Amino acid sequence: MSLFVFSNAKLVAAKKTKKQNVLLIFTDDHRYSGVHALGKQDVKTPNIDALADNGIVFTNTYLMGAFSGATCMPSRAMLLTGRQLFRLKGQGREIPEDQTTIGETFKQAGYNTNMVGKWHQDTKSLVRSFDSGSTVMGIGVYLTDHYRMPLWDWDKEGTFDKKDAYLLEYDENGKTVRRAITKDDKRGPIGTEKTAPHTSEIFADNAINYIKDYKEKDPFFMYLAFHAPHDPRQAPKKYRDMYPADSIQLTPSYMPQHPFDNGHMVLRDEALAPWPRTAEIARQQLADYYAIITHLDAQIGRVIASLKESGQYENTLIVFAGDSGLAVGCHGLMGKQSVYDEDGIHVPFIISGANVADKGKRIDALSYTFDIFPTICDLTGLSIPESVDGKSLVPVIKEEKEQIRDYTYHAYRQHQRAYRKGDYKLIEFVRAKDYDRKSKSEIVSGSRVTLLFNYKKDPWETTNLAFLPEYKEVLEGMQKEMKEKAVELGDYKEHVDYAYDFWDFY
């Protein structure tokens, strides 16, 4: 099969005729503005910037939302299945067999499929998706420490027993060794670069080893899922020293405190910094965030270098994306449990590689992370599985269409909904019932608030237009359409199997 790339809306045959490899890099809690070339913030990301310069940047790609505070679980389920939020099973932890994964799709097409890094779904879907893997994390044991991350070797049976998890650390000679996890291993970020390798280094090393040793005639599909820049925001001193906190520029949406209860203000992510989030606290949090991103960027650079050194770069499609946004001081928040853009749902998405002809191209078409799966299939000539809801962006890349979607819709648990169309974005918050696990009782949280932003003029969402008379018609139109889209998409508790329904409280 011939390999094709796009240039000036025309198909151009590439020099090589064999199927191209695919490297899908997925980062954790990495907002759109967490890439310098995209958001022009203080963060340094030369290697991801190079992917953007040598590829196509999608400027309006979003996470649809989550019914879990651990938004990385549904975000991964959507990426891996190409299915929208309201058509996942439950909160996205389990991927049923009738939902074909991206790994399965490439496996069935004759690719050797390999997985490295974070997995947030069930192990049955993991092993059916990939032929091989290494240093898998996220399966039931977690120490909240990038330098003490429980890992598993690949288990083709999908057992991944807790007793088989191990840690990597340095011995007295500086050599990396493994050891079993014990009851004395306490949770918390107590490791450093002197005691053990960082998760980003471990995952990059394993990806590099796979690429370096790859000798098969068939192409490979690699899913490289980094845990960074998810907290704890640990990075080697070299990278922390790059970001003196007093030199960090705060974002336009910085606030010391969120102005109202958004329904999920008290959770682990928000406990990472004290209230109020003073300018000094916010700058330090941003400095730590940027440091771990720059360290991650260096590891991504090593992986790309290995492709070039092995001769694989010329025939590899590189896809880079983040799983969610992250507030880190925006709107007075720290986590990603919201439907504000940078705080929760706006993510980087880049398609790059030697055979991408439209280098440096920016595409503003609206898209979701679950559109990535069908887009990759379309670019590599694979049939898109029937279980996929997402839409390929290839018609936009080829300039046959300006948009594949005319709106986006977002949900966070039973407290928040958002609707984006044209220049505007509507966010509705409600006061709703919830269940408190600690007290084992039903509680009520949240506030009934309406926000309307012109996100084209106000991308950081700082000026609420909802109360202004001149926006009354826009507001009412957006509210009416949002209700209609909720029904079309299946956003009601009987459909999504969720205990509480936003619309019962709206």
UniProtKB/TrEMBL annotation:
Coiled coil: none
PROSITE patterns: SULFATASE_2
Swiss-Prot/TrEMBL cofactor(s): Ca(2+)
Record keywords: Calcium, Hydrolase, Metal-binding, Signal
Domain Sulfatase N-terminal, first and last residues per copy: 20-381
A GO term, aspect molecular function: metal ion binding
Homology family: Belongs to the sulfatase family.
Name of the protein in question: Arylsulfatase
Organism: Labilibaculum antarcticum
